[in-house]
Every structure is written in structure tokens, then in C-alpha cells.
Amino acid sequence: MLDSNLFYRNVFTLIGNLLLVSDGDSLIEIRFDNEGNITNSDIPILVETEKQLKQYFAGERRTFDIPLKPIGTNFQLSVWNELKKIPYGETISYQQLAERVGDKKKSRAVGNANGKNPIPIIIPCHRVIRKSGDLGGFGGGIKIKRKLLELEQKLSSRIVTDK
What we know:
Layout lengths: L6 E7 L2 E7 L4 E5 L12 H14 L16 H10 L8 E2 H8 L5 H9 L12 E2 L12 H15 L7
Helix pairs in contact: 2-3, 3-4
């Protein structure tokens, strides 16, 4: 459901349509499986987010410089802040994330917070996997999680040279 106090923009990517949602100043949500049937807003934050996402999918960007305002509990916000620290092309386990948040016994709670991340890709919840190496869950589906991880691993293995 669309809120008339928010701004929206459709973005077509290699993982499908995404719907960007903003309060006008910050990005507050990225939704998967967008039908693409809304009128795009051209407010600067959404235009810039689309640009940076396209650069990310083209392998030209590894970090994002977008003002974010995810909405969640204090615990969820602490988990999402830790997610932003996972380097491009790398993964950690839910247990490692729980340790970073302060309690290795909270793997399940961390997994739940990870699953409620409202700004996937930019807050890289896809970089968290099970201790066994299995992918675990993902709001956009396992196929999309796998694509994101493969994209990052492929591009992070490139040799970068200065010209």
C-alpha cells in the first residue's frame, strides 16, 4: 500500500523491479517484486539512489552514499548498523553478527532483525549466511540473495589497476 506522505520510484535492475521509498530527505525502504505501476517521483534522493544502485549492479560501486532512515526497534537498528560494516564481497554468519551486536547467543534474534531490514542491498543483509555456509533466508528470495553474493564475489575478485 502506498502512503501519500511518501515518495516512490521504480527501478529496473538485474534482480527485477525494485520500489524505492523516501520521506523526501532520506531513503526509508526498498521493496522487491514491485509491479512498476506507480508514477515515479523525481525528488533528488530517489534519483540519486537509482543512480547508485545502477552503478552497484554494473560493478562500478561498492559502497553507497545515501541518507538512510530505516524504521525499527533499537535492537534492529543496532543490527542494521553492523550490517553496513560488512565489506563488499564478504559474508559473515548470523552468529558472528550476533557477537558484533554484543551477544553470540542472539543468533535467532539477529536473524529476525536481518529479515526485517527495510533497505536491503544498501544495508547489505544479503551478506549474512548460516554458519554451515548455507545461504539462509532473504526478503527478496534465495535466488536474489545468491545473485547479489555472486555479483559481489565476482567483482571483488577483479584486479584493480590504476591508469
